[in-house]
Design goal:
Helicase, Ruva Protein, domain 3, 3 domains, two-stranded antiparallel ribbon, single chain, five-stranded parallel sheet, Rossmann fold, flat, alpha/beta
Length: about 475
């Protein structure tokens, strides 16, 4: 039996089809209710991000001169791995359609060292926003592009129209063309081969590494020497199905305004962007300033500081201000403490929330409540092969007990332990379906113990297997 516990947030969850609804309707209780659909517990963190989201909307209702002074209150999430830190931020961004990027603080170095400089995270966020806006613009022009694609395919099938025909011949050809158009729309010609004219493949491109604080430079020969590389066409013989895909993208590209897309992407980053900086504790000095083997850690913090405070980052699409980007930092802080960060950076994360380690009861809820629960995922996967999987309530309780036990005995990896255990239990069924397993399969507590009994009883083995 798989069961679903009712939402406890006190607010009605948003309909899954209305995730893009206007932000003014996303009050903090409704945001928490939406996050509750996918993430169990951690109410303090959910409330913090919900308030931060609402404050963004409130700021945009203020007079421009006052709105410019209202800066986002960045959030520091403290808690072990696998308790939902990243998922809360990612779901928040998806809910509002905000550009979102997760980065690890450990992959950055201070200026002057070999490695990625901190400003590159802003440039990467701009690329995310560009792709987001480009997809939206493609959807807007898709219908008009499809009509042009249809005409181009018909021309490939029948030949171009000509003014040299007599009126009767022209009328007959038009009727034949429209009949062919209907067959094309009905999907009867998908495997017919046609010859189409398309742009040649893009000419060579390469990157030039930038110096300290500078962005890598993309060198595209087609843009530098359009007379030599640009505008060349080639003829290809493909099926109608393939032609439709090739021509649809080409027609959409013709209708897109690159400069407009870049401007909109930068605007979204500046107004609604969310940068999630994970593993911030790894660049904190655990025993005070200047300690530890990596002398660059404080340098990374110093380079992060102006970005979080608000600065202008130069990108190939234009300058980007980070004053109103929302920064959410996270870390386990097992060894280092938030107070080990340089004071200036601490002050830029005024809201701190501690996420709690997951308990056995939490694991039961995680397995059954969320819309994307692991149990539901495995049931859907096996249903494709004709297997109806049922995991009983006592089996779910036993899985939760084992996950808690292994987390306590080895390294605590939170809810990620559930995926490891479930994969171990279901591996024979996943392997044998559909050739040897079909129909209904019931997993009870007995089957769970049989699958994991020997491993869970030996902590030295569980450390490697589970």
């Amino acid at each position: 039996m798989v069961f679903y516990m009712p939402d406890r947030s006190g607010a009605e969850p948003l309909d899954a089809g209305r995730l893009g609804e206007r932000v003014e309707n996303l009050t903090p209780p409704r945001v928490v209710a939406e996050l509750d659909r996918f993430i169990v517990g951690q109410q303090a963190a959910k409330r913090a991000v919900a308030v931060a989201l609402r404050n963004r909307w409130r700021r945009r209702q203020l007079p421009p001169e006052l709105a410019e002074e209202v800066l986002p209150k960045n959030i520091l999430m403290i808690g072990p791995t696998g308790v939902g830190k990243t998922e809360i931020a990612r779901r928040l961004a998806r809910l509002t359609g905000s550009p979102f990027l997760k980065v690890e603080a450990t992959k950055y170095t201070e200026v002057g060292y070999v490695g990625r400089d901190c400003e590159s995270m802003v440039r990467d966020l701009v690329e995310v926003a560009l792709e987001m806006v480009r997809r939206e613009k493609r959807r807007e022009v898709a219908a008009a592009a499809a009509r042009s694609v249809e005409d181009r395919i018909l021309e490939a099938l029948t030949g171009p129209r000509s003014a040299s025909f007599s009126p009767d011949e022209a009328r007959a050809r038009l009727e034949a063309r429209e009949a062919l158009r209907q067959r094309l729309r009905d999907g009867e010609l998908e495997d017919e081969r046609v010859e189409i004219e398309v742009a040649e493949e893009a000419p060579p491109a390469f990157k030039i590494a930038g110096g300290p604080g500078m962005e890598e430079i993309d060198v595209r020969l087609g843009e530098m020497m359009p007379g030599l590389f640009g505008g060349r066409r080639a003829r290809r013989r493909v099926t109608v199905r393939e032609a439709r895909e090739i021509l649809q993208r080409e027609e959409e590209d013709r209708r897109l305004d690159r400069e407009e897309i870049a401007r909109e992407a930068i605007r979204r980053v500046e107004e609604t962007g969310i940068l999630f900086i994970d593993e911030l504790d790894k660049v904190a000095a655990p025993n005070g300033p200047g300690s530890g083997p990596d002398v660059s850690r404080q340098g990374v913090q110093r380079d992060l500081l102006p970005i979080v405070e608000g600065t202008i980052v130069q990108t190939k699409h234009g300058p980007v201000r980070t004053d109103h980007v929302l920064f959410i930092a996270a870390g386990a802080f097992h060894v280092a403490k938030p107070s080990d960060l340089i004071p200036e950076l601490q002050g830029r994360f005024p809201i701190r929330v501690e996420l709690q380690p997951l308990t056995r009861a939490d694991f039961v809820r995680i397995l059954t409540e969320p819309e994307n629960a692991l149990v539901r995922q495995y049931q859907a996967l096996l249903r494709v092969d004709g297997v109806e999987l049922e995991i009983t309530a006592d089996a779910i309780d036993e899985i939760a007990r084992l996950a808690e036990e292994v987390n306590e005995a080895t390294e605590d990896i939170g809810a990620r332990r559930l995926a490891t255990i479930l994969e171990r239990i279901l591996e024979p069924i996943l392997f044998e379906a559909p050739e040897e397993r079909t129909g209904k399969v019931v997993i009870g507590a007995k089957e769970v113990r049989e699958a994991l009994g020997e491993i869970s009883g030996r902590h030295d083995l569980a450390r490697y297997v589970l």
